[in-house]
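Ligand-bound model needed. protoporphyrin IX containing FE.
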Amino acid sequence: MKAPDAVAQVRPLDPPRLPQVPPTAGAESLNTEYYIGNAEQERQAFTAFVRQIHEVQAAQARDNAQETQRGFHAKAHGCVTGWFQLFPDRDPRTRFGVFADGAGPWPVWIRYSNGVGWRQTDNELDARGMAVKLMGVPGPKLIDEEKATQDFLMTNSPTPVGRDGFDFMKFAQANASGKAAGVAFLVSHTKHGGPALLSTLPVSSAVAETYWSGGAFHLGSHQAVKFLAKPCSIAHQRNPQGSGENGLRDDLRAAAKEGFCFNFYLQFQTDAFRTPIEDASREWSEADSPPIPVGRIDVPSQSIDDEKRDAFCKQLSYSPWHGVAAHQPMGHINRARKYVYSASRDYRRGGVEPKDFSIPQENPPHHQQ
Ligand code: HEM
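Prediction:
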């Protein structure tokens, strides 16, 4: 298939446009993001978020008698390795950044997790996460924490909690005051929290869930997308093999022994109202924006039971800002994440960049708090 002329003129690594200053009053437009206030006001709000996430991490460590963990997604079910292969006949519109012609296949580390910032039984209400790290990705990166990675973070809800970073941080603080307060927050914010609340129901297998990006991302300099991963049909043919406290790890162990896979899709922004950038609580429905297949993530048969692997899994750090400009995160909720993820990572003294499938042997780096 040949790319349409307008797309062919955009080079795969062209930088995306900056948010509009000032925002266009009351109007979203295609592929465009808006500062809330202006860049400086956003920076001040995000600096406050950094303090808040440290308070949340400190409170969670104290109240759950645990060492300092991720502000969210503290409990991993396990980490697995695999390959992200691009479909040769993928839509020309998708061929930017790590999906460009000639790119890949990419080796990946994937971490499956529960949503809250403390360890709890898998039977509790919670979101589930799938974080995918592509390795060996060339070119300048959006932030300098990692040199050669592109991360894709997803949860099993098509929308995150809230329309923007302010909503999300209110939820983070409610959650830190106890699970009941977190659920009460979602219930009282059903306009924004409805899909996110439904997605907190217990699940029987992390590899049979669909995972969505929640926020929007640039794709090249001229397009906005969300992304999602759906399990390959094989996931629906197997019986989940775990229950109870660590049922999702038990099931992941069994699935990884057999090998499993996910298909990865992009949803393109179609118009500014049904597929907005700034209001992340507005689901981009498949009717409005059908998922376009890009590639497949294959996890070959492997064992997840290894102390070194678990320690490494804990040290790993994922961020939507680990990556190249062609996939720059968009919208307030994603701009906030540029600050909050690094803050959480530094506070828990995490962060080690994998270069391949081997588990780094050196001591984890220590960061400034
Ligand atoms: C918009 C949709 C979002 C999705 C899909 C998402 C997904 C995820 C996932 C999958 C992880 C686990 C990463 C890992 O395995 O290490 C994670 C971690 C985390 N998330 Fe989010 N998240 C979202 C929004 C947010 C927002 C808005 C904030 C706060 C402003 C936030 C704060 C965090 C923090 C602090 C961590 C832990 C980071 C670390 O210490 O490494 N998330 N998120």
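The chain has one domain: 33-347.
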